[in-house]
Structure prediction request, 362 residues.
Amino acid sequence: MVLPEFDSLPATLAWDNDSLSIIDQTRLPRDTVIETLTTAFEVWRAIHELRVRGAPAIGVAAAYGLCVSMQPSRGLPLEAFRAELIEQAAYLDSARPTAVNLNWSLKRMLRAAGQSRAADAASLYRVLVEEATQIHREDQWLCEQIGKHGLPLITAGCGVLTHCNAGALATTGLGTATAPMYIAHREGIAFRVYADETRPLLQGARLTAYELHQAGIDVTLITDGMAASLMARRKVDVVIVGADRVAANGDFANKIGTLSLAIASRHFGVPFYVACPSSTLDLQTPNGSTIVIEERHGDEVTHLAGRQIAPTGVKVLNPAFDVTPHDLVTGFITERGIIARPFEANLAAMFQTQAAAASTAS
Prediction:
């Protein structure tokens, strides 16, 4: 397994001696604070409050978080442990509704426990840790593969636009949307990145610009409203964003503002790609209209860095995500290659290939 080679990339989370620690991303870039999570509530709160965020990182954090949640129950009878495991998984799954990796990861952990022949609770706990560790390793490998498949999209002198943070901080590896950028930089390709600030929580300014700058990549921070203007000036050759959930037909949910970028890209003829691992694909969701969109507190819009910037009592809309229709997407960059149209057939075919490979391996 090939893992990232960038020493400057932040370690989003770590598991050591049955202990889960994360970077509190709400404190970046001014302060790098490592927080150790010791209870189910602390894990739930860290996901809910975006201390750990990004669909792949949430999935890994949830897997280890389930282990943390079950640590006090290792002395229970086996069946009581299994019952508690189901309750704790449901609790963690309620932390955020839109990112499919949260539910996917917890279901995988429950499936591993269900298939285990462990004789006691302590042994079953170790099975859970092993499965979470495997999910962690796979996430790093998936990022590397996404980067390799997306590399041809980044050519010498080109301009790449990205939105929010689908970078190392959103995963435990090279990121998804940023993975081709990191590999292109490693290959010595000279290019430039434009990072949207991403209101209201400024993930692009606080996180993407931070990590790309730390890695030595030529990155320019822009306001969200500036993207279309850059496209009009032919400064942007390709847009690469991440995704929190991809429906069966190729509609996808990503950070609010992504839809505007896709529309502008179509107008100016700029290729628009979505980078995501297969764990973000949800074939049980037929199209984007059925994706649940998380609504967050209005204070995130009316306040900036703790200071009020809007009239007291003003009405606020604050959806964390929007849904981009599949007909605005050029392709999906996955660990298995770039998926082109027709998306519904080709995404389903990728899953069928994976299922066949898993069946053969077992």
